[in-house]
Write a structure and sequence with these properties.
471 residues; alpha+beta; 8-stranded antiparallel β-sheet
């Protein structure tokens, strides 16, 4: 038996593990010879091509307990898969054990208590579909195919975060299987240190099997802004948008994208895939006069190319961009938190965007503050409450021959923006595995030492240490 977590397993050890898992799990155990192996190891980001020794596709919490028990005995590298939608592909590992929660579905909404309990394989689209039956929502996700687990554990940006906070801020409790195989209910009252760490601390704390979220009145219709401006006015629009964000009420969550005009049937074909500045904002309350007035500054930034603002179902808003990030294409994302967006920073953004290698690549500036900043800086492991913006450099492409070019563009743009950064990086947009060590302090800031103490307390033998080291 390997003497430390993360050792490479021999072929015989793989067979023994597989037999032990098959004898105890209700779910499916997938090895290298399984006909569904290639499909089971595939994640959203087509750049990721890892080959685990075994995939334990769990059907319930008892399966997770058994998978952790077998891992504790054999000490493979362990990764944990929820939605499998994370940029770095941390859901899968080479030559180790994937504890796969993607088939653990189910959402129960208590409209009177305004809570929802969701299992760890649920996506944001699935959660929103259930909560919106009661005109309730919990903030999270801009792509409906994203899993609730990874996004929430890393913090969780969303379209209404300035009104309702990050995804992790709405977590009431969690069910966690820790490295000793114990099933723990984790909340402010029970296991408070683990609860603190799970809200923004990312991976490697155990296997979270379900989440209880607090819900907020929202929907079924929401008011929003979507205005496209000519790219030739990018600098001017960015400066005007920056100024408008300084006075935006907490009911408005603005964001700006340097991107291509989507190939949407509602948009004239001659504009498709041309560069533009895209202004988006969502009002975190009912549509009406108050929403119109609060959103107006986001629409009044000069003559637009197109103004597609209006009301739409919340579930449609949450899934509106999903088609632009399809499964299997190649992605690389890296971000900075910023306290200000200076004129020089804006000029740098516009310049770097102009060098992008593909029409799928973009730069996103998200506005924080509001409810995000109202949470105490040490109330959760999320370390960047005071930042005003997050700037994400997002490369997207299809041809593997462009890997070096696309990743190189994103890295160089991130480097160029570093002088304007507050020093922080969002864990869910933190590059690939090779970026993890260099960025660890930037991701967790002053909370890093406390996180390490908590991990050591719940996982003294380091079973989940390889997962904790991933972005």
């Amino acid at each position: 038996m390997p003497d430390k977590p993360g050792a490479v397993l021999t072929a015989s050890a793989e067979h023994v593990m597989a037999d032990e898992l098959r004898s105890s799990l209700r779910g499916e155990v997938i090895d290298r010879g399984h006909p569904g192996y290639d499909e089971a190891r595939t994640v959203w980001n087509g750049l990721i091509d890892r080959r685990p020794a075994l995939i334990a596709r769990c059907s319930d919490t008892a399966d997770v307990v058994d998978a952790v028990r077998v891992a504790r005995e054999h000490r493979p590298v362990v990764s944990i898969r929820g939605g499998g939608h994370q940029v770095a592909g941390s859901a899968v590992c080479d030559d180790g054990l994937v504890i796969d929660l993607s088939r653990m579905k189910g959402v129960h909404v208590d409209p009177a208590a305004r809570t929802a309990r969701a299992r760890a394989g649920v996506t944001w689209g699935e959660l929103d579909r259930e909560t919106q039956l009661h005109h309730l929502a919990t903030p999270g996700g801009e792509i409906s195919a994203t899993g609730i687990a990874g996004l929430t554990l890393g913090g969780g940006f969303g379209f209404v975060m300035r009104t309702f906070g990050l995804s992790c801020d709405s977590v009431r409790s969690l069910e966690v299987v820790t490295a000793d195989g114990a099933v723990r209910t984790v909340s402010r009252e029970e296991e408070p240190e683990l609860f603190w760490a799970a809200r923004g601390g990312g991976r490697g704390l155990g296997v979270v099997t379900s989440f209880e979220f607090g819900l907020h009145p929202l929907g079924p219709e929401v008011a929003g802004v979507l205005v496209l401006h000519p790219y030739e006015r990018a600098g001017e629009v960015l400066r005007a948008w920056r100024d408008a964000t300084h006075t935006a009420p907490e009911t408005v969550t603005p964001e700006l994208l340097l991107w291509s005009v989507p190939a949407d049937p509602a948009i004239p074909p001659e504009l498709h895939r041309t560069n533009c500045v895209m202004i988006g904002a969502v009002y975190g309350g009912p549509p009406g006069d108050a929403a119109t007035a609060a959103l107006a500054p986001q629409r009044e930034l000069g003559p637009p190319l197109l103004d597609l603002s209006g009301t739409m179902p919340y579930v449609a808003l949450q899934s509106a961009n999903t088609w632009r990030f399809p499964d299997g294409e190649r992605y690389f994302m890296k971000s900075h938190f910023m306290d200000e967006l200076s004129d020089e920073a804006i000029d740098t953004l516009v310049d770097r965007y102009s060098r992008r290698p593909t029409p799928e690549s973009l730069i996103v500036v998200r506005t924080l503050g509001g409810a995000v900043a109202r949470v105490g800086p040490d109330d959760s492991a999320f370390a960047h409450r005071s930042a005003r913006y997050n700037v994400s450099i997002d490369a997207g492409w299809q041809d593997p021959a462009l890997d070096g070019t696309a990743i190189g563009w994103a890295r160089s743009a991130w480097d160029a923006m570093k002088p304007f950064s507050s020093g922080g990086t969002y864990v869910n947009f933190a590059g690939l595995g090779e970026d993890a060590s260099a960025l660890r302090g930037a991701v967790f800031g002053s909370h890093e030492e406390r996180l390490e103490r908590i991990r050591a307390a719940y996982d003294p033998d380091g079973l989940f240490a390889p997962a904790a080291r991933r972005p």
